[in-house]
Amino acid sequence: MFILQKNELIILEECCNYLNILKNIENSSQNTLRAYSRDLSQVFLTEEFENAEISDKNQQASFQIQEIGTHKKLKLSNNFTESELLEHIKSIQRDWRDLAASTKKRKTACLKSFLNYLYQASKTERQLSLLIYSTKTPSKLPRYLSFEECKQVLSYLRAQAENKNTDKSLDTYFLFLLMYGAGLRVSEACSLKHKDLQFSKQSIRVLGKGNKERIVVAPKFVFSEIKKHKKKSVYIYGEKELSTRKAFSLIRTAGHEAGVLRPINPHALRHSFATHLLASGTDLRSLQELLGHSSLAATQMYTHLDLNQLSENLEKHHPLNKKKKL
User: Fold this and answer.
1) Is 209 annotated in the active site?
2) So what's the pLDDT on residue 115?
């Protein structure tokens, strides 16, 4: 039997407890917390009561059940059993069949993690997470720009910063420099403060995923350009950090206006940073440190990308291309 059977809101309280552990002990990122709180709300609350949610208001207080009254209903009946909980989750998974593979993978990971929490907290007798099937997502090679395309965007943004010198032109230029020049994630670049930049050492203190701090280096050009256009503010973009939504819009617009034929986004700049460094001879271990990957496996995907260089090496060294009679 499922032990949570006294009150139908207890399951939501356990969701909050679980999210608070992720936030305060596991140091999960805000993006993960937002996604997981939304996923759990969607799994356990009826759609007609979508105003009810699990949230941490202002990103400061602990997670709490917001706007839940006596009229709010769960998708599960009161006093449900472990088997009913398991069947409910499996039925929810079947509703995800039209979602993107990466979205299904995240939602399933959230549920399995939550069920593990319930088992470890002695709220369930069985480890239900072992009974949840997780589909494998096909691995995709990240999209990246050619070196010529990066130079094209850089030249355009540099000219815009020099000639217009508006907040928009400077913000876009700084974003490009930090993500292509230093390989920062978009969330890391958006939250960067002036005090995080050490101009004399050409280094940047970055607070990455899971609140893990790392030091990255960047070319002298990056620091000289930021210093030249430096704003008198806390963040490099002004008095508050830049939203990731705005960052996506700025980079997409910059690529279009610079004449790049395909749409670009902040992730493509970070992938381009990694791909071009690897093609230039940077070893995987150093690249892992620069990107802030906890596992070398995450960095190894970039070894499959530089097809042009592979083609050149093949043409140069393959015996069939030698001008000799066989």
Assistant:
1) yes
2) 94
Which of these is catalytic: 123, 231, 246, 267? 267
Pinpoint the residues of the chain covered by CATH 1.10.443.10: 147-305
Lookup result for tokens 């393959």: 318
Residue 282 pLDDT more than 60? yes
CB 194 within 8 A of CB 244: no
Tens digits of residue pLDDT in 174-213: 999 999 999 999 999 999 999 999 999 999 999 887 778 8
Is 90 a residue whose pLDDT tops 80?
yes
Which member of 105, 194, 209, 229 is catalytic?
209
Active-site annotation holder among 107, 270, 271, 276: 270
Residue 185 falls in the annotated catalytic set: yes
Mean pLDDT within 310-321: 63
Q: Is 156 part of the annotated catalytic residue set?
A: no
Catalytic residue flag (residue 173): no
302 a catalytic residue: yes
Domain 147-305 classification at class level: mainly alpha
Query: Which of 107, 185, 271, 276 is an active site residue?
Result: 185
Whether 106 sits among the annotated catalytic residues: the reply is no
